């Protein structure tokens, strides 16, 4: 069993498998200096019409998840309940992915060891570890209900906090409580975007975008998605000044037009509809975005995007 692959499958399947507030026990496992937190109520997302649509496609198409389930007894499409992710915002730190669900830890560990995976113990907790370039990745299970993944130091820290009270930034905690109680998928960041722009991003285009004055003025961001008959997306970006917020709103509108003009033919109509329905408003130094998409239209968009991808791959052969 390849540990980075297992961790990636868990995370990716959460996003594609898609309310109560964030689980306090998972929140307590986050690092005290966490600056970026994201999460999802997997049960609620899966129960939505769009979640059911994605699950049906995953059941029919995803062989990797079926193999994972056969080997370990863990199927993220059925066994995940909630996920919480956190990082300090430093690009080179992996951070934590915390999951609540049903984990057959004995079977998972046995499968990992049979595949030659290293298993070590830390304070009574078994940890699967693997090396990827200069970073040691880890996957641990506190019990059959909570899994922890991330870089080894971060996982050790989460295990240390399992039986101790922990406190993160009060403003961040309050925002997490607000969004996690009203959204199915959400994220909050109190890291100024300029901090990220000071690092060399792996993608040169992304690095150039982060360096623009309008985007570098962003001090905080938050947002989420609520599934239903209409899928609603909302987001906020807090800029340094009112003038910065106005400039940022103009950049968002411009980027929307750029996406629209460069959309592949097979999804151009859907992209145009999305851009035209996007609401961009300013309130002082805050930019607020809102988008409402009929669930059936979102399904159609996914089908069109998949068909377009298949067609482009066929043409390259």
Helix content: 40-55%
Q: Roughly what is the average pLDDT, rounded to an integer?
A: 83
Contiguous helical run count: 15
Cross-sheet strand order for the largest sheet: 4-5-6-7-3-2-1-8-9-10-12-11
* Helix-strand makeup class: alpha+beta
* Percent of residues in β-strands: 25-35%
Spatial gap, N to C terminus? 31 Å
CATH architecture assignment name of the largest domain: 3-Layer(aba) Sandwich
- The count of strands amounts to 12
CATH topology description of the largest domain:
Protein Transport Mog1p, Chain A
Please give the domain count.
Answer: 2
CATH class wording of the largest domain: Alpha Beta
Overall shape: globular
Radius of gyration: 21 Å
Largest sheet: 12 strands, antiparallel
Along the chain, the helix and strand elements come as HHEHHHHEEHEEEEHHEHHHEEHHEEH
Oligomer: single chain
The stretches of 5 or more residues where confidence is low (pLDDT under 50) are 1-19, 199-203
Sum up the structure in keywords.
single chain; 317 residues; alpha+beta; Protein Transport Mog1p, Chain A; 2 domains; 12-stranded antiparallel beta sheet; 15 helices; 48% helix; 26% strand; globular; disordered N terminus
Walkthrough of the structure:
The chain is of the alpha+beta class. The protein folds into two domains: 3-163, Protein Transport Mog1p, Chain A, CATH 3.40.1000; 192-316, no CATH class. It is built from 15 helices and twelve strands. The protein has helices spanning 3-17, 24-29, 42-47, 49-61, 63-72, 76-79, 105-114, 152-160, 170-180, 193-197, 204-210, 213-216, 242-261, 268-277, 295-316; strands at residues 36-41, 80-87, 96-101, 118-122, 125-132, 135-141, 146-151, 185-189, 218-226, 230-239, 279-283, 286-294. A twelve-stranded antiparallel beta sheet has the order 4-5-6-7-3-2-1-8-9-10-12-11, sandwiched between helices. Mean pLDDT is 83; it is low at 1-19 and 199-203.
């Amino acid at each position: 069993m390849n540990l980075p692959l297992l961790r990636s499958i868990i995370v990716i399947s959460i996003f594609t498998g898609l309310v109560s507030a964030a689980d306090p026990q998972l929140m307590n496992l986050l690092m005290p200096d966490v600056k970026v937190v994201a999460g999802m109520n997997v049960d609620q997302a899966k129960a939505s019409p769009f979640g059911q649509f994605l699950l049906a496609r995953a059941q029919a198409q995803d062989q990797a998840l079926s193999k994972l389930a056969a080997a370990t007894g863990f199927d993220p499409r059925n066994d995940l309940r909630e996920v919480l992710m956190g990082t300090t915002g430093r690009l080179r730190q992996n951070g934590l992915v915390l999951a609540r669900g049903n984990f057959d830890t004995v079977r998972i560990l046995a499968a990992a060891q049979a595949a030659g995976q290293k298993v070590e113990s830390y304070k009574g907790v078994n940890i699967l570890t693997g090396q990827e370039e200069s970073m040691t990745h880890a996957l641990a299970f506190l019990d059959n209900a909570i899994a922890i993944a991330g870089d080894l130091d971060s996982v050790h820290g989460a295990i240390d906090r399992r039986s101790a009270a922990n406190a993160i930034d009060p403003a961040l905690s309050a925002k997490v409580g607000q969004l996690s109680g009203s959204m199915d998928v959400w994220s909050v960041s109190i890291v100024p975007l300029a901090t990220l722009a000071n690092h060399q991003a792996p993608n040169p285009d992304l690095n150039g975008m982060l360096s623009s004055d309008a985007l570098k003025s962003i001090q905080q961001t938050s947002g989420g998605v609520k599934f239903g008959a209409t899928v609603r997306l909302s987001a906020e970006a807090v800029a340094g000044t009112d003038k910065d917020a106005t400039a940022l709103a103009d950049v968002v509108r411009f980027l929307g037009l750029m996406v629209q003009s460069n959309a592949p033919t097979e999804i151009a109509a859907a992209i145009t509809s999305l851009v035209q329905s996007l609401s961009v408003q300013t309130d002082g130094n805050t930019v607020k975005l809102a988008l409402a998409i009929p669930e059936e239209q979102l399904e159609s968009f996914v089908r069109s995007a998949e068909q377009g991808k298949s067609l482009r791959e066929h043409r390259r052969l």
